[in-house]
Specification:
The protein starts with 5 loop residues before the first strand and ends with a strand. The strands form four sheets. Strands 14, 15, 16, 17, 18, 19, 20 and 21 form an eight-stranded antiparallel sheet that branches. The chain folds into two domains: 267 residues, no CATH class; 91 residues, no CATH class. The longest helix has 17 residues. Helices cover 26% and strands 38% of the residues. The protein contains nine helices and 26 strands. With 372 residues, it is an alpha+beta fold.
Length: 372
């Protein structure tokens, strides 16, 4: 909880009535301007319907998760919600983009809904307006969603992540106060009264091992420098191609480099199929694929990002965090979860994702909005 315009509620209750009671207790009696709601495999739609009935003017979006984040705490199989009030938010609008008849059409319809409140998105001031995007992760539409949003609003940041189901990739619903979908995106647009900082934190940096993508199709990587991609990757890791697995590729990611920064394209199961590698993000033929190495570690890198946010904003009054589920697995494997969580000492809410969004789609990254 906070008296600075953002309140956070986190509950492990199982029954819907108990969840709602805990959220009311944490978010306060006064209706917030907006609510963000993240739940793993609970009846999110039912909870949001109850919140909407109690707070009909509150704009709400949410999604399923691969873990939940709040102030000082990382959990799994819990529910977290953040409410921002009128001290932060001047205007807000939400829209549900349904993709059953195409991503471009779904985004266009959703943008029209946002523009009914804000006017043309291309005319908005990017220093006072920011968007949130939560995308279903089971249909591989994150790249086309980000492209479509960029076409409609090239100057605005849409920050968020791919809904999760603890890496099962079976069903990842997104929901708003107006409805839900298993194939689409939930969008929220905010005009903020206080400064904010958009952050992309990835603790990997490129090595000198770089290869040209000579054959790829969507998220399937067939060849690097004219050789089977699995063969090249296996040489880098130091194992035969048949020994490649999610575990050894997870620890040795590859990606593209833009302005010296890593944009990780994580390998996902099924890892190898006839010499091809399956990626969680698309990669274009002709691109340079860099193998990556860690820098600072997850805890050290998050500390650095928070220092930068404080230098820009002064006091951090709140944050919305979209953190890769693979980072959660790394924290658990290295027993650094508590050290990482302690750095989040300001009001914060978010979730562990199946991929992160900001200017594009990526993995093993934390995308965030820090509120000043």
């Amino acid at each position: 909880m906070s008296d600075d315009g953002i309140r956070v509620a986190h509950t492990s209750a199982e029954r819907v009535d108990d969840v709602i009671a805990d959220l009311y207790a944490g978010l306060g009696a006064a209706p917030p301007a907006v609510v963000l709601f993240f739940a793993p495999d609970r009846p999110g739609e039912e909870v949001i319907r109850a919140l909407s009935a109690a707070w009909p003017r509150t704009r709400i979006i949410g999604c399923s998760t691969a873990g939940e984040i709040s102030t000082g705490v990382l959990r799994n199989h819990s529910i977290v919600a953040a409410g921002l009030d009128a001290r932060f938010v001047r205007r807000a609008a939400v829209a549900l983009a349904d993709f059953h008849d195409g991503v471009e059409r779904g985004v266009a319809r959703a943008v029209a809904q946002l523009e009914s409140t804000f006017g043309p998105l291309g005319a908005l001031d990017p220093t006072t307006h920011v968007g949130l995007v939560l995308v279903d992760s089971t249909h591989g539409v994150e790249e086309s969603t980000n492209v479509a949003l960029g076409n409609h609003a090239p100057l605005l940041s849409f920050v968020g992540g791919s809904a999760g189901d603890n890496l099962r990739f079976k069903e990842t619903p997104v929901v708003t106060c107006a409805g839900s979908t298993r194939h689409g995106a939930a969008l929220m647009l905010l005009e903020l009264l206080r400064p904010f900082r958009v952050s992309k934190a990835c603790h990997f940096e490129p090595t000198n091992s770089c290869f040209r993508v000579t054959r790829a199709e969507g998220r399937r990587l067939f060849e690097l420098d004219g050789r089977p991609a699995a063969e090249v990757y296996a040489e880098y890791i130091g194992c035969p191609p048949e020994a490649l697995s999610f575990e050894n590729l997870f620890a040795n990611p590859a990606g593209i480099v833009i302005d010296g920064k890593a944009w990780v394209r994580q390998v996902v199961p099924p890892v190898v199929d006839g010499g091809a590698i399956t990626l969680g993000c698309s990669i274009a033929e002709g691109a340079e694929l860099h193998f990556m190495k860690p820098r600072l570690g997850l805890v050290g890198h998050l500390r650095q990002e928070i220092v930068l946010a404080r230098a820009e904003l002064g006091r951090i009054r709140g944050a919305l965090l979209f953190d890769c589920a693979l980072r959660r697995l790394e924290l658990e494997a290295t027993q650094k979860t508590d050290d990482y969580a302690r750095l989040i000492e300001f009001p914060a809410a978010g979730f562990h994702t199946h991929g992160e969004s900001w200017l594009g789609h990526m993995h093993q990254t934390l995308t965030a909005i820090y509120l000043g």
